[in-house]
Amino acid sequence: IPTEFKEALPILQKIEAAGYEAYFVGGSVRDTILKRPIHDVDIATSAYPSEVKELFKKTVDTGIEHGTVMILDHGTGYEVTTFRTESGYQDYRRPDKVTFVRSLKEDLKRRDFTINALALSESGQVFDLFGGLADMQHHIIKAVGDPNERFNEDALRMMRAVRFASQLDFQIESETLQGIARHSRLLEKIAVERCHSEFVKMMLGVAAQNGLNVMLDTGLDRHVPVLGEHEQALKQLANSPLSLQNEVQVWSLLAFTFGFSRGQISSFLKKWKTANKIINDVILTTELLFAIKKQQVTNWLLYQTGAANITNAIDVFGPLPETQTLMSRYAELPIKTKKQLQITGGQLIQQGVLQPGPELGKILDYLERAVVDGQIPNNFDDLKAAAVNFLNED
Ligand code: ATP
Ligand code: MG
């Protein structure tokens, strides 16, 4: 069993010694059985939150109203959640009411997919009440219970199904798939940020091609921002395997495929509530992608794009002849940032080349570009002479 579980065992043992049940649950159990790396260890218990808090010295109420208490243990935090059932779901996204219960079965029943509804006890016993192990063996994503009910309760589960299908390279079981097709429009009830997170994880999964195809086949693409307006382009993308490394690459590939301008990229990604830093990187990466396609990559463009986004563009475009020399061309640029210019604004003034004022910025911009383009060597004397010339010509 993985070290993450071993380290958390004393927590399970302590809860059990006090007469309650406690299990590892959720993604960490699934990923352990699939021999995949695990990130967060979730623990479920029959103890109520107040009872959990009595047992441990250091706890944080991270989600106490949902029954989650974080136990701090030697610098690691473990989320311990009381067995619960959920009811209500009037808004297709969150339960109106959670009820704490003492039964593991009731808790597993509210979980989304059979592969996510397994519990692992301290002694290593797996509790598989919904056929999750068999589904895992057959590489199947299947809703726990009636898929129609489950997607009606919480529409995000549809995107989660697609995400797991891509991450694990599993197939979605046919009734679950039909349920998604039938309820796809409910996705509009879900906060965009939550769809965003599942969609990006899906696009980064090993079987993103399948994930995209499922979105197209079930109509989910029509109920997330913008994608539904570009189905032909998406179908093209879903024709071949994708291998994207990060979120910037995901959006850049889409923006490039859709032929988006800067302004269109910005409005596309704002609709998806994407972070501004990511939007900027996508704009730079996509601009380089268009230039690669037209075989018009200048040194100035490489300089502006920067190493990280050049790598992003190369990853998206693929290891083709067009991209092979881009990194070495970048490495050979005389400067990588304006700070590396061998003259400063202060020095230009000190040397009496010009007075402080708006001209200064223009001159530095000119020198930066001329050095990058290889027109002026990057040393003090040449830069000073070029600045003098520039002023005389003006
Ligand atoms: P990841 O590896 O991405 O963390 P995960 O399966 O652990 O995947 P989490 O969002 O961390 O996903 O949720 C932990 C567990 O909680 C899930 O395995 C599942 O049992 C349950 N769960 C999470 N979200 C839902 C949901 N929307 N509906 C029902 N059960 C859910
Ligand atoms: Mg998890």
Provide an overview of this structure:
Mg(2+) binds at residues 40, 42. With 394 residues, the protein is α+β, with helices and mostly antiparallel strands. The chain has 4 domains: 1-138, 2-Layer Sandwich (Beta Polymerase, domain 2); 139-242, Hydrophobic Seed Protein (Orthogonal Bundle); 244-333, Methane Monooxygenase Hydroxylase, Chain G, domain 1; 341-393, no CATH class. Helices cover 52% and strands 11% of the residues. The chain starts with a helix and ends with a helix. 39% of the residues are buried. Adenosine-5'-triphosphate binds at residues 26-27, 39-40, 42, 111-112, 116-117, 154, 156-157. The site of adenosine-5'-triphosphate has 12 residues, from helix 7.
Layout of SSEs?
Layout: H1 3-17, E1 22-25, H2 27-33, E2 42-45, H3 49-55, E3 59-63, E4 68-73, E5 76-82, E6 84-87, E7 97-100, H4 104-109, E8 118-121, E9 126-128, H5 132-137, E10 140-141, H6 147-153, H7 156-168, E11 171-172, H8 174-183, H9 192-204, H10 208-218, H11 231-237, H12 247-258, H13 262-271, H14 276-293, H15 299-317, H16 321-324, H17 326-331, H18 345-350, H19 358-372, H20 380-393
Parallel strand pairs: 2-5, 10-11
Antiparallel strand pairs: 1-2, 1-8, 3-4, 4-5, 6-7, 8-9
Helix pairs in contact: 6-8, 7-9, 7-10, 10-11, 12-14, 12-15, 13-14, 14-15
Bound molecules: adenosine-5'-triphosphate and magnesium ion (MG).
Magnesium ion is lined by residues 26-27, 40.
Enzyme class: transferase
Binding site for CTP: 27, 30, 111, 154, 157, 160, 163
Binding site for Mg(2+): 40, 42
